[in-house]
Write a structure and sequence with these properties.
311 residues; 9 helices
């Protein structure tokens, strides 16, 4: 399905974004709609409406060749049933999203995890450009991750490669002061998943546990920068946990670049603090892996979705 224009959709919990890229990765258009909360049928229709409007703006009249479409979602499709699983936007779970989109839009559609889309975008022409192996992490409302190898997303045999956020926090600290065992309950039904510690809400919850003050993650960071000792301690715990979690990735995958996206990726102090710490757990005498913020920021997801049709 060769085309000089590629469409990408980023299906998030609060917004659905569409973008069209040319062959050089330049945006030709972008548009967003609110995600219909808890309504699967309305979500399909919102995506269809964005695609219709995009093709009209690009001069693709109805009946002409349909543009290739990639869709990034906060979950993945089962290779056995084709149904969506592991989505924190739970209305998608158990639904045949891929088949429904192809039927509704009348074209082949590629549906992949949103963190894989981040990894692809950054591997092709972002912070990981030129690297063979890129590990992309979303540190947002939830925590997801994906792997790109030679600019292509790597799904693995069970289509769960990179599902990092629902592994347990490694090397739990036994000290009562850290309060790491057994860990918070996760929406997936387990306890102590990395998502419960490293998401924005997880960071805020840990701060509340230690201080009795429930404030948003960005407010904890602001307080830390203003010299608040309790906020600094919360941020130190966060960096230590992120360093341990990423050290596990380096020990297993040894990527050249780890790229961070999502709201917590905007905290600039992470990029000094975490690499200073992760060497304590990496099984090597040195760590050459680069830790970078996403070069394309919050555009990486929708760009990576479009790039699913690249080449």
């Amino acid at each position: 399905m060769a085309s000089d224009i590629l469409l990408g959709v980023d299906l998030g919990g609060t917004k659905i974004e569409i973008a069209a890229l040319d062959a050089q990765g330049r945006f030709l258009l972008r548009e967003r709609l609110p995600t219909p909360r808890g309504d699967y049928a309305a979500t399909l229709e919102a995506i269809a409406e964005l695609v219709r409007r995009a093709e009209a703006r690009l001069g693709r009249a109805e009946g002409s060749a349909r543009l290739p479409l990639g869709v990034g979602i906060p979950g993945s499709a089962s290779p056995v049933s084709g149904l969506i699983r592991n989505a924190n936007s739970t209305v998608l779970n158990g639904m045949p999203l891929h088949a429904d989109l192809e039927r509704r839009l009348g074209r082949p559609v590629r549906v992949h995890n949103d963190a894989n889309c981040l990894a692809v975008s950054e591997a092709v022409d972002g912070a990981g450009a030129g690297a063979r192996v890129v590990f992309g992490v979303i540190l947002g409302t939830g925590v997801g991750a994906g792997i790109a190898i030679d600019g292509k997303d790597w799904l693995g045999r069970n289509a769960v490669a990179g599902e990092w956020g629902h592994n347990p926090l490694p090397w739990q600290r036994a000290s009562v002061a850290w309060r790491e065992a057994p860990g918070p309950l996760c929406w997936c039904g387990r306890q102590g998943c990395l998502e419960t510690w490293l998401s924005g809400p997880g960071f805020a919850a840990d701060h509340a546990t230690h201080t009795g003050r429930r404030i948003a993650a960005q407010d904890v960071v602001a307080a830390m920068r203003a010299g608040d000792a309790a906020a600094r301690a919360s941020f130190t715990r966060y960096c230590d946990r992120l360093a341990r979690g990423l050290a596990h990735v380096v020990n297993l995958l040894d990527p050249e670049v780890i790229v961070l996206g999502g709201g917590m990726s905007n905290v600039r102090e992470l990029y000094d603090e975490v690499p200073r710490r992760w060497g304590a757990w990496v099984f090597s005498d040195s760590v050459q892996t680069r830790l970078c913020g996403a070069a394309h920021g919050d555009s990486s997801g929708v760009r990576g979705a479009a790039w699913l049709w690249r080449g």
